Amino acid sequence: MAAAQRIVIENCAIATVDADDTEYASGHVVLAGNRIESLGAGRAPEGLDNVVRRIDASGHLVTPGLINTHHHFYQWITRGLATDHNLFDWLVALYPVWARIDEPMVRAAAQGSLAMMARGGVTTAMDHHYVFPHGSGDLSGAIIGAARDMGVRFTLARGSMDRSEKDGGLPPDFAVETLDGALAATEETVRQHHDSSFDAMTQVAVAPCSPFSVSTELLRDGAQLARRLGVRLHTHGSETVEEEKFCHELFGMGPTDYFESTGWLGEDVWMAHCVHMNDSDIAAFARTRTGVAHCPSSNARLAAGIARVPDMLAAGVPVGLGVDGTASNESGELHTELRNALLINRLGAHREAALNARQALRLGTYGGAQVLGRAAETGSLEPGKLADLVLWKLDTLAHASIADPVTALVFGAAAPVTASFVDGRQIVADGRLLTADEDAIARSTRDEAQRLARIAAQG
């Protein structure tokens, strides 16, 4: 690291989100190559070699980069549809449209989703992609390529579905894969793209979609595949009361017991939503260290309910935040989920004691790193960790009169991002992407959305 090029950031408030929640009212961060070399109160040490840039970050809060733990990028081109539906009705309305996606659509949608998150402070993203229509092209490659070009650290949760309408599931028959086909394609994606190194920019997880769209065999065999390959597992769980009823009727047990029976609880697993969890479910997640991706805006959009996040945290369940697909969270931003997680959870049983500002920030940073299995590398600002961090501008009209910077970030309006670094490389400056043309992405997503709408109307 002594020979690495250094970037020095000074005169900023810092929220490290380390184990002690260390904060500095005015401090510095030194980046060396793709790592955080040092940080602390006051100015950076004198005499540092090979300093290529100094940033005066007066009026800013520096935090770890935000980490998104659940998303469906392809939905960027079906935003604003089925706006008054619950989950099952929404899926029935949209599956026939989604089943017509192809590689150019998915590439454009991934670019749109990634761009919106990156310009809002996300440094690690994930995508749960589970719709693979026959003849649609290399969808996984398109998504991974978009993340690579954007410069965002990325996990692709390679999804799958094999329970269609004829089997009692929700997806159309032509929108699913076979059991063997899904497993083979998932394994190939892992072998081709997964990087297990400390500073990996691309990782892959095994991710059958949900209990109502995959067979028991796909869940069980998928878990075995993931553990044989040494990668993580992801799926949807306990999102709605309808899902719970579905599991009881089909399997004779609730979602958590069903998942446990198929090998789907463990420290290498995280599930999206987990809204309808009883005390026994939460205890099982805590005992097995199964993670949760909390998606407050999507849960509200689909009237799914309020997840028991304070109870999960108290029990020791790892919890991160998720945007979820933009067909159920049209804003597509994660930094607004900090505020929404705090506010929505205060509508639950714990009321004003549910979450505070620092707990919300932890959900969006270190909690997300835990859920993705990357807490040793990112999620907090500590020497030796990856240089993934964000400079939030808090001295404008929107925030200047709020004394505490973490409170300003979480409770206030969405804060402007002056700079975002991933792996030591700056990807955002003054709220604009440095790695992509936002206007060109806007045009391509509009064009692909219109093309998909035409094809779906003809189908």
Report on the structure:
This is 8-oxoguanine deaminase. GO terms for molecular function: deaminase activity; hydrolase activity, acting on carbon-nitrogen (but not peptide) bonds, in cyclic amidines; metal ion binding. It comes from Streptomyces swartbergensis. Keywords: Hydrolase, Metal-binding, Zinc. Residues 61-425 form the Amidohydrolase-related domain. By secondary structure, the chain is an alpha/beta fold. The protein folds into two domains: 6-64 and 381-433, Urease, subunit C, domain 1; 66-372, Metal-dependent hydrolases (TIM Barrel), CATH 3.20.20. It contains 14 helices and 17 strands. It has helices spanning 87-98, 103-118, 139-150, 179-193, 216-229, 241-251, 255-261, 279-288, 296-301, 309-315, 335-345, 357-371, 405-411, 438-458, and strands spanning 6-15, 23-32, 35-41, 51-56, 60-64, 66-67, 122-129, 153-160, 202-208, 233-237, 269-273, 291-294, 319-321, 389-393, 417-422, 425-429, 432-433. Strands 1, 2, 3, 4, 5, 14, 15, 16 and 17 form a nine-stranded mixed beta sheet that branches. It is globular and about 70 Å long. The N and C termini lie far apart (57 Å). The mean pLDDT is 96.
